[in-house]
Amino acid sequence: MLEWSTAAPAISSAFLASLVEVVEALTIVLAVVALRGWRPAITGTIAALGTLAAIVLALGPLLDRIPLHVLQIVIGILLLLFGLGWLRKATLRAAGIMALHDEDAIFAREKAELGAEVARHQASRDWIAGMTAYKAVLLEGLEVVFIVIAVGAGRGLLIPASAGALAACLAVLAIGVVVHRPLSKVPENTLKFAVGVMLSTFGVFWTGEGLGVDWPGGDLALLGIGLLFLATAALSAMSARRLAGAAA
Amino acid sequence: MSVLAEVFAELFSMFAGDARLSLGALAVVALAAAAAWFAAPLVAAAVLLLGSLAVLVVNVMLAAWRQT
Question: In chain B, is it the N or the C terminus that has fewer CB atoms within a 10 Å radius of its CB?
Answer without folding.
Answer: N
